[in-house]
Amino acid sequence: MNRRSITRVAAALVTAGVAASMLAGCAGGSGGDDADGKVTITWWNNATSGPLPAVWEQVAKDFMKEHPNVVVKQTGYQNEDLQRTLIPNALAAGDPPDLFQTWGGGETRDQVNNDYLMPLDDLIPDTIKSVGATVNGWQVDGKTYGIPYRFGIEGFWYNKDLFAKAGITSTPTTLDELKTDVKKLKDAGITPIAVGAGDKWPAAHWWYQFALHSCSPDTLKAGTGSFDFSDPCWVEAGNQLKDFIGTNPFQDGFLGTPAQTGAGSSAGLVANGNAAMELMGDWNAGVMGGLTPDQKVPSFLSWFPFPGIEGAAGDAKAQLGNGDAFACAKSAPKECADLLAYIMSPEIQKKYAESGSGIPTVASAQASLTDDNLKLIAQATTDASFVQLYFDTAFGTEVGNAMNEGIVNLFAGKGSAQDIVDKMTAAAKTVQQ
Amino acid sequence: MSTLTSTPGSAVAADPGVPTARRRKDRGVVRKRIEITIFVAPALILFLGFVVAPVVLAAVYSFFNLPAAFQWDMLNGDRFIGLDNYIRAFTTPEFIQSIGNTFVIVVASLLVQGPLAILIALLLNRRMKGRSVFRLLIFVPYVLAEVIAGLAWRLLLQPNGGVNALLEAVGLGALKQNWLADPSIALFTIFLIMTWKYIGFAILLMLAGLQGVPDELAEAAAIDGASWWQTQRYITLPLLGPTIRIWAFLSIIGSLQVFDIVWVTVSPTVRQMATDTMATYMVQQGQFAGQPGYGSAIAVILFLISLVVALVYQRFALRRDLEGAVTSGVR
Fold first, then answer.
1. In the prediction, which pLDDT does A7 show?
2. Contact A256 B266 (CB under 8 A)
């Protein structure tokens, strides 16, 4: 071999080596057990702002102190990215985090069908008992796959001062009263309702409320259970909503308004006194607190549940809600369940309640709620005749997405109430096929 | 690659009476081949693994119904549905609209950005003060990442954002718009942002093309009494032809695949209403609506449309420019 060919061979080997290591880099997996016998638990949650990230970080640290052989890696991701992209991709790739956020309903059903989740009943039965009926949304065929730490219903967050200015003395208990109040607010020159329709789901929740209050509980069960949307109440819900949108209750340009980012978002409009109310989940106080100049939850803020619809088949005391839960991956080390039990322990849940991030599911922790609005919601959740999971969660990704597309069309004046049901039925066919 | 062996006159045609020489020559060929293989293999493996294989897989997935409950598992149950995903795509108004939006962007880019870029390039090609500063400024938006540009405009174009405040301040309050939230003008707004972003690149190309136009021709025309406009129209523009055609090709391909700016600038709702392109619709359906099979069908359709447009354009518009480069290599 002369010198030139030696150089060439060396160059070729280096090139091949670089390529091989690039390919190998993609294949690298993460093992549960480290070389020094420590168990690593990766934990993905949706806490990115407010006081919650600090709470979870402290939980991870304390758990590691008590279990020296465990390393907990805790990371918060933006909720929708986490739910729609990060977790599905990680699960499909066979390399999921050990403990992760889960939203229940159709999604949990699908994940169980794919054998992605660890059944928890035999591992931490007492923890499951401690959250009561709220765990239903995370059970499939009688087995429990996730445990909610937060569960709450949505309702109207409203500005007491603006209501008083418009001459409204009590919060509405029927749809007609709500319409009257909207008119009073408009007459007083106040934007009655802020809706973050740009993000799709805040608009969709309006239809969910109309459907919940238009359809009987049995019809709702047929919908979530077997995708049977033949009852006319599903179309009627859309027509009712269309009439309501026709009264022009929302802020200008609501199709482009985001729900939670910036002072121009729907939460920001209410938090800064530029709109009188917003239909939103129990997490909203935490969101609004981050959107005011002084970073505090405004004192004029109060809450009332969505009113019933007179003469409709729906249960006026039924409520819509959802929860935040954690689940362990099938492949996770068994310490994952221990960490989950620790997170759900009363002392941690009290800290969670004190942070004002939402309503804890553990009954003994609810007394630690300091936020007046959260206390109101906790009471209303207890008073509800039943709590329906948000329909997009209950129906699963495909039907939920088709439904939201149809509802957004209705908001933009582009589709009919029948179109929403047609889209849902068509999507249900692709799932059941 | 294989010309060494197949071309008459090289190895095959070597003198058959001298076997040792031939063997040596053969050995040379073999070594050359090994060398080529070793050097090409890494790139080839990456290309096959990360470009060709995903394209083929997408084509395969597009014939399956893959709901979240059976994620990617094509063998689980009766998942094969033939052309149903394609039929569904072409009977879905939202997808038809996304094709329409994409082609609006393609055509508008050609008709607006092209002439504008040529005009500005002609101006910047004249000797004047601060020319290099202008050239630099115009190219800056192109250097920005799409996501950053999109977010910046998203903030500027809010109902109470900078653009409306500026219009108000200069007494044009009547022109205030809900730029990104009004479905009837959102696509127009997106196109304005894209023009702002990409025109720098077009101008740069045109300026480079103008450097290839000999000054002598313009001087000769001036002696013959041609005005500045006549010189540009009858001398500069024709000679700029190859540059314009290449720019148009890049612009068409880029417009067909527009994703980032649309995705980050408008809200999901307005996107669905008015500004979905084929690429954003594909990601929305394939990823966020949990329908990888349907999304793959959209991807294949987008791929085929881009391919056909590119081939037709190459065949008819770029034929002269590429004479001897691409065309004869294929033959």
1. 60
2. yes
User: What would the pLDDT profile of A316-353 be if each residue is shown by its tens digit?
Assistant: 889 999 999 999 999 999 999 999 999 999 999 999 98
Cβ–Cβ < 8 Å for B296, B243: no
Structure tokens at A146: 């996730």
* Nearest in space to A80 (alpha carbons), one of A319, A224, A261: A261
Q: How far is CA A20 from CA A8, A26, A122, B45, in A?
A: 18, 10, 44, 10
B26 to chain A, closest Cα gap in Å = 17
Supply angle C-alpha A199, A200, A202, rounded to 5: 85
Residue B150 has pLDDT above 90, yes or no: yes
- Cross-chain Cβ contact B183/A412 below 8 Å: yes
Please name the residues in contact with A414: beta carbons below 8 A apart, sequence gap of 6 or more. Answer: B273
- pLDDT category, B259, cuts 50, 70, 90? very high
Q: Is the CA virtual torsion B181, B187, B192, B198 positive or negative? A: positive
Going B160 to B162 to B165 to B171, the CA torsion angle's sign is negative
Candidate CATH numbers 3.40.50.720, 3.30.70.2190, 3.40.190.10, 3.30.70.120; the one for domain A153-320+390-432 = 3.40.190.10
Dihedral over alpha carbons A78, B263, A391, A142 (to 10 degrees)? -50
Task: Decide if B272 and A409 are in contact by the 8 Å CB cutoff.
Answer: yes
Burial B224-236 (b: 16+ CB within 10 A, else e): eebeeeebbeebb
Cβ atoms of residues B153 and B237 within 8 Å = no
User: Positive or negative, the Cα torsion across B188, B193, B198, B200?
Assistant: positive
Q: Which of B252, B263, B258 is nearest to B147 (CA)?
A: B263
Dihedral (CA of B23, B25, B27, B30) sign: negative
The values of phi and psi at residue A8, to 5°, are -65, -45
Does the structure show a pLDDT above 50 at B158? yes
ipTM surpassing 0.95, yes or no? no
| Residue (of B163, B117, B162) closest to B139 by Cα position | B117
Nearest chain B alpha carbon to A413: B273
Residues 6+ apart with CB under 8 A from B264: B146, B147, B150, B151, B154
| Chains A, B: CB pairs < 8 Å | 124
Q: Which of B267, B271, B280, B296 to mutate to test the interface with A (most CBs of A within 10 A)?
A: B267
Which of A23, A253, A258 is closest, CB to CB, to B178? Answer: A253
- Give the residue range(s) of CATH 3.40.190.10 domains in chain A: 39-151+322-378, 153-320+390-432
CB contact under 8 A, B288 and A84: yes
- What is the dotted CATH code of the domain comprising B92-330? 1.10.3720.10
pLDDT band of A232, cuts 50, 70, 90? very high
Query: Which pLDDT score, from 0 to 100, does residue A14 have?
Result: 55
Contact residues for B266 (Cβ-Cβ < 8 A; gap 6+): A256, B154, B180, B186, B190, B274, B275
Interface test with A, best of B269, B273, B288, B291 (most A CBs within 10 A): B269
Q: Which of B39, B69, B159 sits opposite A113 (nearest CB)?
A: B69
Burial code (b: 16+ CB inside 10 Å, e: under 16) for A138-168 equals bbbeeebbbbbbbbbbbbbbbbeebbeebeb
Q: What is the pLDDT of residue B71?
A: 60
Q: What is the CATH T-level fold of the domain A39-151+322-378, as seen in this structure?
A: D-Maltodextrin-Binding Protein; domain 2 (3.40.190)
Give me the residue spans of the domains in chain B.
Answer: 92-330
**Could you tell me if B243 lies within 8 Å of chain A, comparing CB atoms?**
no
- pLDDT of B2 strictly over 90: no
Report yes or no: B28 and B5 within 8 Å, Cβ to Cβ: no
What angle, rounded to 10 degrees, do the helices at A417-432 and A397-411 form? 170
Distance from CA of A180 to the nearest CA of B (A): 28
> What distance lies between CA A281 and its chain's CA centroid?
9
